[in-house]
Fold these 3 entries.
Entry 1:
Amino acid sequence: MDKIIIEGGHPLKGEGKISGAKNAALPILVSSLLADGWNTYTNVPDLKDIESTIMLLSKLGAKIEREKDTVRINASGLNNYEAPYDLVRKMRASILVLGPLVARLKKARVSLPGGCAIGARPINLHLKGLSRLGASIDMEHGYIEAKADCLKGNTIYFDITTVTGTENIMMAAVLAQGETVIRNAAREPEIVALSDVLNKMGADIKGAGTSKITIKGVSSLKPVSVSIIPDRIEAGTFMIASAATCGDITLTGCEPDHLEAVIHKLSLTGADITIDESAMRVLGSDEIKSVDVKTLPYPGFPTDMQAQFMVLMSVARGLSIISETVFENRFIHVSELKRMGANIKVSGNTAMIQGVRRLSGAPVMATDLRASASLVLAGLVAGGTTEINRIYHLDRGYQSIEKKFARLGAAIKRVKG
Ligand code: EPZ
């Protein structure tokens, strides 16, 4: 298995371009199932999760062409309603095909995605939403079987805001008979991006980005050509890298409006952030202030930025408190950061971080996507050498992260395992 080796202590300098958003691309590529004809998607990031999604869609009968950051998908030949275990286990977001398959083929058989490192991650709300639209739901042998001769609009209230749950129901409801209202809907930019694409396909969705989304069913949709929005989590990760290494980097191809909570918190730590349309410059301060953070659904501080922010707090002055309210087990990175000299105490969903002068490089193990990113950031600021194993987690969500950091002056390389 490949690993990443980092010699820490180099301030990052220069300019980097942010890739398309993984968590927008996944549901948008899946939305191609809802129409016949060729859809063209540009600014698609080159990630393992995109490869998995393309593999799944072609297994369902879609034709797919890919040229650099452009992916073209034609689902006219959609002829298989089963998403098998060996694909779903690699990427739990495969559950997103459930809604579109029931909408188009009137049935779906999708392997139950298991839990993952950060939590149990149930899909009960996805299934509750689908049954509210009239689908019958059975579960056997580790598979969900959903059927509906004709989905009918209804009001769906999500007890918890769920990003992919909102996306799944949106995609099921666009071809349903009548009106669907989703209450307590997730408000992430990726939801708005999906809604924009579906409306461009001929859907009638209002309210995406708010907690109430109204969808009037239409009889059919047409294919589109769209570009994927920038990845706010990749951008946030690089912003923190600049702040943590007392660097000076400019990120282009971003959407600062999607990062308000991160920009606010990062500014409080003493970083100087300048915004110019789709570019952001982050000037690190040699004295990092401790700042408390609580993760929340959008527009709150994103849970996907929690591990990265913890690295910054590990080398800040004073005590900071980070509360993780979205997932029940998202402090896995703490034990690895402590092996690098971080002073962190965890109690339940709260971590108390006492900043130290410097982290020290060590061999560490990646466990999930964002925890892996935090280990890269820790390696960049630590004294000495850090070796990160199991970096396939990183490749799921960051496009050539070591090349991007090397171009910014980091002493970082990938070693083929
Ligand atoms: C999406 O996951 C993202 N993934 C995650 O990003 C992100 O961390 C998460 O939203 C929260 O922002 C994609 O968009 C592909 P949720 P999702 O449903 O949709 C509970 C990354 O690193 N819940 O919003 O799976 C759930 O357990 C990944 O890019 C239920 O109880 O998250 C969690 O506590 C990691 N029942 C909370 O809701 C359900 O049916 C929020 O989960 C669904 C969710």
Note: The chain has a mean pLDDT of 96.
Entry 2:
Amino acid sequence: MVKIAPSILSADFANLGSEIEEIKNAGADYVHFDVMDGAFVPNISIGIPVLKSVRKSTDMFIDVHLMIEKPVRYVKQFCSAGADLVNFHVEADSEENIKEAISIAKSMGKKTGVTLKPGTPAEAVMPFLPLVDLVLIMTVEPGFGGQSFMHDQLPKMEAVRKMIDEVNPACELEVDGGVDANTAPLCKKSGADVLVAGSAVFGKADRAAAIKAIKEA
Ligand code: DX5
Ligand code: ZN
């Protein structure tokens, strides 16, 4: 069964604790935590202090998506603040520095992932694939919730699925952006294990029904 990671970017930040409790009870698998710095992407969201508070309020698995330049500068802080898994964009720094960020997170007992923007080819994961627990493929340009799913990313998903099966079969394939009950079946067919959904979960009054609809689509 595919896992669902609701993105709290679309949650009510004034009631974040109860929003997360609600998706936990509704059958969500991970909490997806989007960090934006206004430089790597044209938007600013939440960061380390919010992660600390969320960590105190829930025992759910927190999947942190760092949309920040040179994430190696902050990886320790995000790990100490309570991330369970930290995702690094391969475009955010040199290969050497992304590998350094992965190794710091691992040394702190955390899981790691690498993320690809829509314009980045599948092959870009290869240097990192043996090292990580997850590959995240963006199906929108990162920066905003509520955008339309980019169907042209499906062949890349299939290509990355193949690489994972050959190189690191324990690695999970996660998809983020425009995922709802209509696009979820395409992602599953292309090999996704984890689906991030922001507006398709938090935008709906009945979160349990929304999660069920995506899981069973
Ligand atoms: C976009 C974020 C996503 C976003 C997804 O930059 O990384 O996680 O919240 O939102 P939806 O599901 O609404 O496209
Ligand atoms: Zn995200």
Note: The beta strands are 3-6, 30-36, 61-67, 85-89, 111-116, 134-138, 172-176, 194-197.
Entry 3:
Amino acid sequence: MANSLKLTSPGATRALLAQFGIRARKKYGQNFLTDANIVRGIVEAAGIGEEDCVLEIGPGIGTMTQELSEAAGRVICVEIDENLRPVLAQTLEDCTNVTILWQDILKTDLRALSETWNEGRPLKVVANLPYYVTTPILLHLLEEKGCFSSITVMVQKEVADRICAGPGSREYGALSLAVQYYTSPEIVLKVPPSCFLPRPAVESAVLFLQAYEEPPVDAEEGFLFALVRASFNQRRKTLANGLSHGFRYGDRTLTRARVEEALAAMGLPADIRGEKLSLEEFAALSRILVK
Ligand code: SAM
């Protein structure tokens, strides 16, 4: 799996793109990593070993794929941009444990992937994500419970902060709760724009999401998430007001009195806002209201 051509420098990346007459495509969120320490740091944070089957979303020109190929037993890449075919054919020439699927990750059946390539056992996801679809990709992965043991991804720093935020902070919201329901998130690296080609306009961060085998709270999932979404759609309203106007789950709605009664039963004030409730409190509220 040794590679003659390492891509982890701006010069090597520029030369490769010029050789194939390729420009980074904005429409696919292409910002190629050019920093060897960051690439190594991501693979180390992901804790990849020979026993692992890795799913890399968006290998691009193969910079991180080369490192993953050396560390993992098998690497499955899903890449949407077929213009990169000749580039990856060259850069991954020696990486015999890498398979590339030319498709959109959002349309990929993740369970079938783990069955085909890892006998149904959980995969480890590693990616420098395209920023224009970060949230849909994360939700697509998280909702396929049991398909992944961990997800290590480069995202915008602002998104990483939102994902790790706790109750009461400005960044806390439906995304924080969705990710924290399925995984325990941690920011493991902060990455400046100078580590990419072309440079993104924003700071980036690497998130490590350790998947829970069981959710950390007890709740009917669909009801809980309907509650969370309605609470944060009406962020400036009190929870009782927001839920009485914005909550729908099938044909279920909620009255203001019903929500206030549930809050009182939990010892919470009637005028509390959703952004003050922890995941455990949302779950407790959902257990009362689902009845
Ligand atoms: N992994 C490379 C690196 O670190 O240099 C490239 C990262 S670049 C930020 C994002 C990659 O995701 C690009 O290769 C892009 O073409 C690919 N991509 C964008 N949207 C995608 C999608 N919906 N499904 C699969 N790949 C996608």
Note: Residues 221-289 form a domain with the Helicase, Ruva Protein; domain 3 fold (CATH 1.10.8.100).
